[in-house]
Design brief:
This protein is of the alpha/beta class. It folds into 2 domains: 233 residues, P-loop containing nucleotide triphosphate hydrolases (Rossmann fold), CATH 3.40.50; 71 residues, Alpha-Beta Plaits, CATH 3.30.70.100. It is built from 12 helices and 14 strands. α6 links the parallel β7 and β8. The longest helix has 18 residues. The chain is elongated. Bound molecules: adenosine-5'-triphosphate (ATP). Adenosine-5'-triphosphate binds next to β2 and α2.
């Protein structure tokens, strides 16, 4: 047995499970105006982290603090194990950034724009050419010699990504990367980001106000509302939240839980407030999805009154709206961004 390599593996695992981006109780005020309150978030290596919030929620401010572009009023930001604003910013070389509305020199070609940036970064002129490689990654190589002036918004966005990828960063931070793009361009950007994560192991931090977009792309989601992170959640957990369930309003929730587990072998359920129990699945799924009366009978038999029985599905949109306080404005973004509110016998 090779103890040395086991130790290295253990060390590597410990390093990899450490957050690569972290905000600890970050607060920001502009003058007297509070913008961020006690924001804490954690991004791990390999995550595609969606930072979701309505317009003005504080996404850009948080991103600027994480990148050291703005100082927090209090709290700490950490990137790749370095305290932002305290450690020398050498870690920035390991981070690629696409901020909103990226600027380019319109009268230079795509290649020339990236060449300027490469020179600023002090990238060595090497073979294979890193500029061509970055352009190829975003499928812009055929437009390399075209003036940026004539680029569509989608092409500009991909060029911004190419620029962020020039130095092959470990982390990409993107502020609303699909803003203003049509559904096809949005899909292209999404697939590109997914590929970067899967094939090159790039950790992604992506802000968005479009719920469906975040749900399609991200593995972990932080929801910010009025300057507070109201939830951080894994996508798998969100899927659970949007599952179809059988909802029962009962006279005795604790006894219902006992009967479900001990008489029916059902463990995939949730007790909600007010004597409401949601059953997601059972060892015999038909029991939940086709024969709910059998459950009701078993409960009545066990001494529990069943006041109401209905199917429901807590869509992600409902969940988000609940957390961020109502459907005013555009919480889910474009028409393509809204999620279906399914049959929803149960609505709050
Ligand atoms: N430099 C500044 N001075 C004063 N207030 C600011 C400044 N920058 C941002 N704000 C305020 O902070 C709040 C959060 O802005 P921020 O840009 O972080 O939100 P956002 O979630 O990125 O919004 P959007 O999705 O519209 O870009 C807003 O109310 C904004 O007006």
């Amino acid at each position: 047995m090779n103890h040395g390599s086991a130790a290295v593996d253990a060390r590597r695992t410990a390093t990899e499970s450490r957050p690569v981006i972290e905000a600890r109780a970050v607060t920001k005020r502009y003058g007297r105006q509070p913008v961020l309150h006690d924001v804490s978030l954690t991004v791990r290596r390999g995550d595609i982290y969606g930072f979701l919030g309505r317009n003005g929620a504080g996404k850009t401010t948080t991103i600027r603090i994480l990148l050291g572009l703005v100082h927090p009023t209090s709290g700490e930001a950490w990137v790749l194990g370095h305290r932002v604003g305290v450690a020398p910013p050498s870690w920035l070389r390991r981070v690629g950034v696409v901020l909103e509305q990226p600027g380019f020199y319109p009268n230079l070609t795509a290649y020339e724009n990236l060449a300027l940036h490469a020179r600023m970064l002090g990238l060595p002129t090497a073979r294979p050419d890193p500029i061509e490689r970055a352009l190829a990654t975003v499928e812009l190589l055929p437009l390399a010699r075209r003036l940026v002036r004539g680029f569509s918004q989608g092409e500009r966005q991909r060029l911004a990504l190419a620029r962020a990828l020039l130095h092959e960063p470990e982390i990409l931070v993107l502020d609303e990367p699909t803003n203003g793009l049509d559904p096809y361009a949005i899909r292209d950007v999404r697939e590109l980001l997914r590929r970067l994560n899967r094939e090159r192991g790039v950790t992604l931090f992506v802000s968005s106000h479009i719920l469906a977009e975040v749900q399609r792309l991200c593995t972990r989601i932080g929801i910010i509302h009025e300057g507070r992170v109201v939830e951080e959640i894994e996508l798998t957990r969100l899927h659970q939240l949007s599952r179809r369930y059988l909802e029962l309003e009962v006279t005795d929730a604790p006894r219902t839980a006992w009967l479900l587990e001990n008489r029916l072998g059902i463990t995939d359920y949730q007790v909600v407030e007010g004597g409401v129990v949601r059953i997601f699945d059972a060892p015999e799924p038909a029991l939940v999805h086709e024969r709910p009366e059998a459950i009701s009978e078993a409960l009545v038999h066990g001494g529990v009154g069943v006041r109401r029985l209905a199917y429901g599905q807590d869509s992600l949109e409902q969940h988000f709206i609940r957390l961020t306080g109502g459907p005013t404005g555009s919480p889910t973004g474009s028409p393509t961004g809204g999620m279906a509110d399914h049959d929803g016998a149960h609505r709050r």
